[in-house]
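step=encode ok
step=design start
structure_in=
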């Protein structure tokens, strides 16, 4: 993770055309613009004139990346360990796709792709399966014996693999609405959750990388290996008042995602600056963010006032008893 952070820091001072040419040293097929593709051209769910009446749906359903989409949300839920928070992030990312589809053509999807295949398809199934996986591991007995104490090869293999998994799989209860500080902390966590995926799409587009290129998988692997530690550190910092330091792993991953975002903006601004933002997107986010800020402020002020009233009455009740 630290090495990747240093690479991103170095790339911040490089021109995108130079970086594209550097990538040709890793793969001679890189450094060339990707062929243009059309997205969401025919959004009909039912195509009676074709031999396969559900041709459009079938083509998307059997796309090579559907499986990785499902696995991705299973992994996110396993790391986050909170079904509600992961589910919210999955829905929020669909809005991110709608927000940036005028910039990134591959964000253009049909309505049934967003709703049926993404939100209630790959996302929901992956998150649901992760909740079952977590429940299984929560109830599972662990054996922390050393490898040398294992009597058979199978046990030794499982023990070695287990060395790289979390010590426990306890579910996280983030309690986002229990206190205004927690609300802010979890909101920041959600923001970085979105940056993790958004940066991936912008970097692919700006560096002319095919979605299936190994560099994309390498980036995902580097960040994914850091995620379990980071979420554990964040959770401990949020719920435990005695924890004063959020942890070096969180700082490294957070700074990496921030610098990636700066890099995407630096490289992408000349490419996207002349593309107008749709009014619906602009005003939609202004209204949404304003509503969240105002709503959260009113909610926590009322909650603090309510607790203050309850605390003020408690001594009187005890005195009467």
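sequence_out=
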């Amino acid at each position: 993770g630290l090495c990747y952070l240093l690479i991103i820091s170095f790339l911040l001072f490089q021109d995108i055309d130079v970086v594209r040419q550097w990538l040709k040293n890793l793969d001679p097929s890189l450094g060339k613009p990707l062929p243009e593709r059309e997205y969401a051209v025919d959004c009909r769910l039912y195509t009676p004139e074709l031999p396969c009446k559900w041709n459009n749906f079938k083509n998307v359903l059997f796309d090579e990346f559907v499986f990785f989409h499902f696995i991705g949300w299973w992994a996110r839920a396993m790391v986050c360990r909170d079904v509600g928070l992961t589910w919210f992030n999955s829905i929020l990312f669909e809005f991110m796709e709608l927000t940036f589809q005028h910039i990134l053509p591959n964000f253009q999807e049909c309505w049934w792709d967003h709703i049926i295949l993404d939100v209630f398809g790959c996302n929901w199934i992956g998150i649901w399966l992760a909740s079952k996986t977590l429940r299984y591991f929560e109830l599972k007995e662990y054996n922390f014996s050393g490898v040398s104490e294992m009597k058979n090869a199978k046990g030794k293999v499982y023990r070695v693999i287990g060395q790289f998994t979390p010590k426990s799989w306890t579910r996280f209860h983030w309690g986002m609405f229990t206190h205004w500080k927690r609300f802010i902390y979890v909101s920041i966590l959600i923001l970085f959750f979105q940056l993790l995926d958004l940066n991936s799409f912008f970097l692919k587009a700006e560096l002319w990388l095919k979605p299936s290129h190994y560099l994309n998988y390498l980036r995902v692997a580097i960040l994914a290996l850091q995620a379990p530690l980071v979420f554990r550190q964040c959770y401990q910092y949020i719920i435990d008042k005695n924890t004063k330091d959020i942890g070096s792993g969180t700082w490294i991953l957070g700074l990496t995602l921030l610098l990636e975002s700066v890099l995407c903006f630096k490289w992408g601004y000349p490419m996207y600056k002349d593309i107008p933002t749709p009014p619906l997107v602009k005003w939609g986010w202004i209204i949404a963010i304003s509503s969240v800020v105002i709503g959260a402020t009113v909610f926590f002020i009322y909650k603090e006032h309510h607790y203050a009233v309850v605390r003020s009455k408690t001594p009187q009740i005890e005195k009467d008893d």
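step=design ok
step=annotate ok -> Residues 139-147, 158-164, 317-321 have pLDDT under 50 and may be disordered.
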